[in-house]
Design a protein that fits this description.
Layout (H helix, E strand, L loop, with lengths): L13 E6 L15 H14 L8 E6 L10 E5 L3 E4 L3 H13 L16
Helix pairs in contact: 1-2
Length: about 120
């Protein structure tokens, strides 16, 4: 809980982490489902929308997030909202709705039961 005597220690309002893990042993992984393209698209859209930087949004790469069955996946913090995406239109919707306006994109939520 923050009050007037507690400094705000949050450097970014939101982080979005994209799993870019690639399993070499033949197991399915996010990298096999265009996760890098999703990351690149998100980074570009966030920058173009003026959402990047301190106090705003940070787009991060991540290793395995252990939700491979829902891949490719991304997670937005501090809300801890997990998304499964298919294409750049999905990423555009996440950026516009969630990262810009704080509204979760219900249709792209990763089902809670999906893990590795």
């Amino acid at each position: 809980m923050t009050d007037s005597t507690t400094p705000d220690t949050s450097y970014y309002e939101r982080h979005i982490f994209f799993c870019l893990n690639e399993r070499k042993n033949g197991e399915d992984s996010c990298a096999h489902h265009n996760a890098q393209q999703g990351f690149d698209t998100c980074k570009q859209l966030v920058k173009e929308a003026g959402l990047a930087g301190p106090g705003k949004v940070r787009v991060n790469k991540a290793g395995c997030l252990d939700r491979c069955a829902g891949g490719p996946v991304a997670v937005v913090y501090p809300e801890a909202v997990w998304y499964s995406f298919v294409d750049s239109e999905d990423i555009q919707e996440i950026v516009e709705s969630h990262l810009k306006n704080g509204k979760v994109v219900e249709r792209l939520l990763t089902p809670a039961h999906l893990g590795r």
